[in-house]
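Structure tokens please, single chain.
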Amino acid sequence: MTEFRMPAEWSPHDGCLMAWPTREDLWGSVLAEVKEEYANVARAIAAFEPVTMVAPPGFGEEARALCGDGGGDGDGDRDGGGVTVIELPLDDSWFRDSAPLFVLDGDGNRAGVDFRFNAWGRKHHPYDSDDRISGLLLEHLGVDRIPSGMILEGGAVTVDGEGTLITTEQCLLHPNRNPGMNREQIEGELRSRLGVTKVVWLPYGGLLDTETDGHVDGVCAFAAPGTVVISLPSDPDHPDYARMRANRAVLEATTDARGRRLEIIEVPQTAFADMADGEIEVSYLNYYVANGGVVVPVAGVPQDEEALAVIATAYPGRKVVGVRALAIAFGGGGVHCITQQVPAVRTAG
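Here you go.
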């Protein structure tokens, strides 16, 4: 039987998948603004690698008009790939969670794990097209499909590519996902489908993250083997001040799959801003690691630059780019939530 593993996000990519936002009942008055933000994210990523934007039927031309060709960043030292728009049936636009999770075998061949999707515990309807989109994408890309009956969103896990996976109990053990599976069964499916050998369970996701029930991609991310970037708000009045310190204590006490103690890089900055007559939080941790770059959501506040500098220390040699993502945060996510990397196939020679 062929053994597959999920590579780390910083491994080489063939490209990035995104989905065009059109859900009026979610975005409401910020729909036009969020389309601009999605297009800006796509163009920022396309400066480093090709982007495929999937639009619902009838919205392809709109996506093309706003995204442009996206190729290159003008400084001559990046291999941008542009933005290609295709049309497939969609309900929503969060490809970190509804697109396949790609895995590689020992020879570098690629497959896609097609987990089930139920709109974060049936919070939005309909979601049947998003439950099917993973299979349609794999067919479009000509990539073998590995089915799984377990409900899992990609934002709920982060991996180091060397056997370690971090997740949160708040999300993966929530009864609205897999009520018929216990912790051991969920961990077994993660090991089987994603090729991990150690699962680290953090107790908490973000308290304000009621949309995803505490995805790990708002909490921490592997930045390199043995290195984790973690959100650690410095303000004692922040709702996650104690919760993120409890998560840090778990990481301090654990080792990865290869027995290494984890180096922890703290992002103490947080960003709150007004959007649609309310206050929303932009998670700096919800970034996308591209070929040679890191695209980070920002809020247009002074803390942005400090957070970008911290993230740059975690990814030496990569260009760190901030992209305004207030409307995306209003919808419940960030740059990582709306993207899904396609790892490069390793070729002989």
